[in-house]
Write a structure and sequence with these properties.
6-stranded antiparallel sheet, binds flavin-adenine dinucleotide, alpha+beta, Glutaredoxin, 8-stranded mixed sheet, 509 residues, globular, FAD/NAD(P)-binding domain, 13 helices
Amino acid sequence: MGVETDVIIVGAGPTGLMLAGELRLAGVRALVLERHPQPRPTPKASGLGGRILDVLHYRGLLGRLEAAAEGGYPPPRFPFGGVHLDLTGLADPPMRALSIAQHAVERMLGEHADALGAEIRRGHEVTGLSQDDSTVTADVRGPDGDYRVTARYLVGCDGGRSPIRAMAGIDFPGTTFSEVNRLAQVTIPESVTILPNGDLEIPGNGTVRSGFTRTEHGMFAVAAHGGILYLQSTEDDPADYDSDDPLTMAELGASIRRVLGFDLPLGEPSRLSRYVFQDRQAENYRAGRVFLAGDAAHLFPATGTALNCGLSDTVNLAWKLAAAVQGWAPASLLDTYHTERHYAGARARLQTRAQVALRRGGDPAAEALRDVLTELLTDDPAAHRLGALVGATDLRYPTPETHPLTGTFAPNLTLHTDPDIVTVAELMHTSRPVLLDFADRPELREVAERWPLRVDVFTAKTDNPPADALLIRPDAYIAWAADFAEPAETAASGFHRALSTWFGAPMTH
Ligand SMILES: Cc1cc2nc3c(=O)[nH]c(=O)nc-3n(C[C@H](O)[C@H](O)[C@H](O)COP(=O)(O)OP(=O)(O)OC[C@H]3O[C@@H](n4cnc5c(N)ncnc54)[C@H](O)[C@@H]3O)c2cc1C
C-alpha cells in the first residue's frame, strides 16, 4: 500500500505540535490528527522549566516564548514536595523557568509547525490502527466521514489516557493517587491584607502563611504576586465531584473551608483547575512502527516536570524517525528512543515520587524529613544537584562511549572562525548533526568526508574547549568526544565508530 505521509502524529497537544515541527526540520512529512475541532481553553501548565528551555533556545524558538511570557523569567524558586527549593542565590543556577500558559506554548508550537509545512487536521479522531512490515494505517473519523491514512510511522501524542497506547497493546503500569488538587488564580479581595512577609491577614480568622499550611484535613498553599493570589487546596479524601465538570468557585471555596476550617475570601478567578496525580510509565515507548511520546508515555506525581519531559521526547525521536524514513538509520537507531527516553522518564519519576513522600503526612517523622531536607538545601551544592535533577539538566543518556561528555547536552559554546562568531545554539537551529573540531584535526575531517551531507564539520576555536572535538546529534546531545591530544588513529577510529552508530553506514569508501 502506498503511503500518504511519512509520520502520522495523533494529538495536537504540545507534544504532537513540537514533534511535527521537529520532523519538518529533519525533512520528513508530518500529518497531525487531532480529535477536537478547535484548541481548547482548559488551563493546564503555567510554565516551562529545565532542559527544554535550552532546547527551544537551540531551535531559535525561546525568544518567541519569552515575548509571550507573563513577567519573563521568575526567580527559580519553587516547591519540591513539601519543601522549598530556592535556586535564586546560586551563581550558576542548574535550571531556569519561564512563566507562560500552556495554550500560549501550544499556539507558538502550532504556528512553527505550520510554517514549516506540517499538516494539522483538527476534528479528526483516530479510532483504530493496524501495521505491517513497512507501513502503519490509522482509521480516522473526520468531519466528512470515516477514512484511512497510511504512513511509515505513527506517534501517539494523545495524552495520559492515550487510545493509541491501548491500540498498540502497550502496558501503562503505575499508581493513581487519591488526593485531589484544586488550583486557582484569583484577584486579592479588599478584605484580605498581604503582610510584608507575604502572609495573608484574614479578618476574623488571623493569618494564613504564605507557602504551605498543613492541617489534618489536607494541605493549602498560597502565594501573592502582582495583585493575584495563587492557591492550591489538596485533600486526601475529597468530597464528591465529577472529574468531567470544570472546577467552580463554590467547589474551591468548600474545599478550602474543609482544609483550613474557615472561609477564605476570594476575588475574581482568572484560572480554575482540578487534577489528580498519577505515577505511570509506558512499559515500552515503541511497538513496531508505533511510538509514544509525552503524557501518553509518562505521567508524574508532581507538577513542573511533564512538559519538560514530553517535549524532550519529541526532540529525541524526530531525527531518528527521519533517518529511518530517509533510509539511512542504523538497525538499532529507533530502539534507542525507548532506551534513552524511558531512562529520562524514570529519572523524572524518581524526583516526582520523592516529592510525593515529602508532601505527605503531618506526623513528626514526616515533618522531620522535610526539616532535614530544608536544612540540607541551604548548601549551594545540594540545591544545585536537586535543581539539576528536577530540570533534567543533569541527564546523561546511557552510552557505550567512555568520554564523560558523551550522552550529555552540548554546552552553548561561542565559536570563533575567521571572521565569524557563532554559538552552538545557532548551529543547532537547523537540527543537523555537527562535528565541532577545536584542534584542527585533519584525520577527523577525512573520516567525516565519508558521510557527506549527513554531518557538518565546523573547525573553530573556543575559549576553554571541553575536548578536542565534539560530535553533536540533532537533538544537541553529544554522541562522541575526542580527548585532548588523543592520538590521531584512535580519534579517527572512535569518530568512525560513532558516525556508524548514529548516522548509518559510510556513503563513500
Ligand atoms: C491543571 C494542570 C496543571 C498542569 N501543570 C503543569 C505544569 O505546571 N508543568 C508541566 O510541565 N505540566 C503541567 N501539567 C501537565 C501538562 O498539561 C501535560 O503534561 C501536557 O498537556 C501533555 O501534553 P501532551 O501533548 O502529551 O498531551 P495532551 O496535552 O493531553 O494532548 C493530547 C491531545 O491528543 C488528542 N487526542 C487524544 N486521543 C485522540 C485520538 N484518538 N485522535 C486524535 N486526537 C486525540 C487530545 O484531544 C489532545 O489534544 C498540568 C496539567 C494540568 C491538568
